[in-house]
């Protein structure tokens, strides 16, 4: 690319030299025309002088004739008075004529003298002007020779050759340097369009000709092209062509002039640079892979450390919950009064619910919780959240909500968002023991994936929750999203609140960020993806579920590989009034059905051993028996997404008696809608 400057300068010099040559040609033509005019004037004066000379000679002849006549008359005088008188009269007349002739001769001589003087001055002026024009013409010729020599030197040392194409006439002229540049013999090659195309390398011929035709079609005054040639002595060379298109008054192209320059060195340098860049790119990629591998090892180490913390926290919390359940079961076995049994059962039920809540938070942190995102009017939703937060916070905490009128809708799970904001509100309450202000702000933002720290790009709704509490020091801020990390006293928190908020935001397609300084409060920001507004059912609050009538007794096939879970589930189903048959695997269920077991519904766990899981069993039954209801249940975090993708109902563990009853009704109704019409 460094040769681009000299190429342009050479084109400019060539154009300037062409202009000088044209001016010299015009000056020479003017001098020639003026010399011709002076020569014509001189010839006219010479003609006039010849005419006056003829007239003078005629007058002189008449005078000689009269003198001869007078002399003859004198010789013939005979003394006769009459004759003498007549001769005297004739002599007087002759004298008068002679006097008149002399006067005319004097006038003619004066005119002739004036003409001679004028001719002399004219000849002198003509000679002077001819000498000046001759000197100017010589100077112009020298300038022309110098310009042509400079052009030849410029072409020789720049490796350039000029060309001139008369488009209507089809005539093409090349300079001597152009022949040398292309390795062509001027004795054997006649400049022509066909000869030019033939000199272009075969692989560039089509593109080069297309560039020229495109220039002519678009009337582009600047013609540029690069192509390769096969030089007869120097091998493959790269040339660049630069030209100027000239059009007539109608806009039709009539002439294309320009030059070609050898850019082989530049091209080779570019290719070398490209090769070096490619090598550097490979090295960078290898270095990046090495760094990614190192980061992966570091991430694995950090993950194992976090897993250790997570396992310890889960073990601690679940040991507490299991202690409540096992101790309560032990006390119930020993017998107790009804009031004590009720308290024990309440404690055991509360422990089970806390375990389910802990599991749900773990799944949300791991981004494996099944979300139900939908378009949400955040502005209206926040107004509803004000009352809920007011009940959850103390009276000495003021709640402020700032929302613009044009706030976008967000695509998010409303229930999970409500839980996240409540968690943030509770954390803010604990950070403001002396009271304060909880400010919730929302705004529209456009993120750039190139500059965003989490590589998020596009439209988002930014929801910020700010408190005026004690804030956090840097060492606490760095670990704020870690699971089971908490600054609260033992028994006052699980350490999963902010971890759940972060997991929910990431699973929703956004992220969570926190900003805090000790003594200046804390701001937690949620970035939620934008959704198109809607006025349909999704925009309205979900109505409470309608009461579901008890389902008629069913013949159920329970597919469960865990004996304890199978025993308790079967007992629960019998309590609801259903008959239950149990098998331990999906192949066993298929075999039982093939052998003629009549059932109204299949209830199966998703994750089972034996090569087939419950989802595969449900899919096979849907294909073979589309009218047979199948209800899937699972406590595995990855199951909801797989089941939802298959379009099947799912009951998530742990579940209550009422949730089980509703799930049976929903599975029956879904199968009824899928059942093909009877012929």
TrEMBL record:
Pfam families: HATPase_c (PF02518), HisKA (PF00512), PAS_3 (PF08447), Response_reg (PF00072). InterPro entries: CheY-like_superfamily, HATPase_C_sf, HATPase_dom, His_kinase_dom, HisK_dim/P_dom, HisK_dim/P_sf, PAC, PAS. Residues 313-532 form the Histidine kinase domain. Residues 14-48, 91-157 form a coiled coil. Keywords: ATP-binding, Coiled coil, Kinase, Nucleotide-binding, Phosphoprotein, Transferase, Two-component regulatory system. The modification 4-aspartylphosphate is found at residue 605. The keyword Coiled coil applies. It catalyses: ATP + protein L-histidine = ADP + protein N-phospho-L-histidine. One of its GO terms (molecular function) is ATP binding. The keyword Transferase applies. Residues 555-668 form the Response regulatory domain. Its EC number is 2.7.13.3. Residues 223-275 form the PAC domain. Transmembrane segments: none annotated. NCBIfam families: sensory_box. This is histidine kinase. It comes from Paracraurococcus lichenis.
């Amino acid at each position: 690319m460094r040769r681009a400057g000299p190429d342009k300068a050479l084109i400019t010099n060539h154009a300037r030299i062409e202009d000088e040559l044209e001016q010299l040609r015009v000056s020479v033509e003017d001098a020639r025309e003026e010399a011709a005019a002076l020569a014509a004037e001189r010839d006219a004066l010479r003609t006039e002088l010849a005419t006056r000379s003829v007239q003078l000679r005629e007058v002189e002849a008449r005078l000689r004739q009269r003198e001869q006549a007078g002399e003859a008359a004198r010789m013939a005088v005979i003394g006769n008075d009459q004759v003498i008188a007549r001769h005297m009269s004739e002599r007087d007349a002759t004298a008068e004529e002679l006097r008149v002739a002399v006067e005319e001769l004097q006038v003619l001589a004066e005119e002739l003298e004036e003409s001679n003087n004028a001719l002399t001055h004219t000849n002198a002026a003509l000679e002077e002007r001819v000498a000046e024009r001759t000197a100017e013409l010589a100077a112009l010729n020298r300038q022309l020779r110098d310009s042509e020599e400079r052009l030849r030197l410029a072409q020789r040392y720049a490796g350039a050759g000029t060309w001139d194409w008369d488009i209507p006439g089809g005539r093409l002229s090349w300079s001597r340097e152009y022949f040398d540049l292309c390795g062509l013999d001027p004795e054997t090659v006649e400049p022509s369009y066909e000869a030019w195309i033939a000199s272009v390398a075969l692989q560039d011929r089509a593109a080069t000709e297309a560039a020229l035709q495109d220039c002519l079609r678009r009337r582009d005054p600047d013609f540029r092209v690069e192509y390769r040639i096969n030089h007869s002595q120097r091998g493959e060379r790269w040339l660049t062509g630069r030209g100027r298109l000239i059009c007539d008054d109608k806009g039709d192209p009539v002439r294309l002039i320009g030059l070609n320059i050898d850019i082989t060195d530049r091209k080779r340098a570019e290719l070398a640079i490209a090769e070096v860049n490619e090598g550097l790119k490979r090295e960078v990629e290898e270095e990046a892979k090495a760094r990614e591998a190192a980061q992966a090892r570091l991430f694995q180490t950090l993950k194992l450390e976090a897993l250790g913390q997570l396992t310890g926290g889960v073990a601690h919390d679940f040991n507490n919950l299991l202690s409540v359940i096992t101790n309560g079961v032990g006390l119930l076995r020993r017998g107790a009064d009804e009031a004590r049994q009720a308290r024990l059962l309440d404690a055991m039920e509360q422990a089970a619910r806390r375990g389910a809540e802990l599991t749900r938070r773990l799944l949300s942190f791991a981004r494996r919780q099944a979300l139900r995102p939908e378009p949400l009017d955040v502005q209206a939703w926040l107004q509803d959240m004000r009352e809920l937060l007011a009940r959850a916070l103390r009276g000495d905490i003021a709640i402020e909500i700032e929302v613009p009128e044009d706030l976008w809708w967000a695509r998010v799970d409303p229930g999970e968002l409500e839980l996240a904001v409540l968690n943030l509100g509770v954390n803010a309450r604990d950070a403001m023991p002396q009271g304060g202000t909880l400010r919730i702000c929302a705004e529209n933002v456009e993120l750039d994936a190139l500059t965003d720290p989490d590589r998020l790009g596009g439209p988002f709704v930014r929801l910020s929750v700010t408190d005026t509490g004690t804030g956090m020091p840097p060492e606490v801020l760095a670990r704020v999203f870690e699971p089971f990390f908490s600054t609260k006293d033992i028994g006052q928190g699980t350490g999963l609140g902010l971890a759940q908020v972060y997991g929910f935001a990431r699973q929703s397609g956004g992220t969570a960020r926190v900003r805090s300084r000790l003594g200046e409060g804390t701001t937690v920001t949620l970035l939620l993806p934008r959704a198109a507004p809607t006025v349909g059912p999704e925009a309205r609050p979900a109505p409470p579920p309608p009461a579901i009538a008890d389902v008629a007794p069913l013949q159920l096939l329970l597919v469960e590989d865990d004996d304890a879970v199978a025993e308790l589930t079967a007992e629960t189903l019998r309590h609801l009034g259903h008959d239950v048959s149990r098998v331990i695997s999906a192949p066993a269920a298929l075999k039982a059905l093939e052998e003629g077991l009549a059932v109204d519904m299949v209830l199966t766990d998703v994750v089972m051993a034996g090569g087939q899981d419950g989802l595969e069993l449900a899919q096979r039954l849907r294909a073979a028996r589309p009218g047979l209801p199948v209800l899937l249940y699972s406590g595995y975090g990855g199951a909801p997404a797989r089941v939802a993708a298959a379009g099947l109902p799912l009951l998530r563990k742990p579940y209550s008696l009422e949730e089980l009853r509703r799930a049976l009704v929903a599975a029956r109704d879904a199968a009824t809608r899928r059942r093909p019409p009877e012929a």
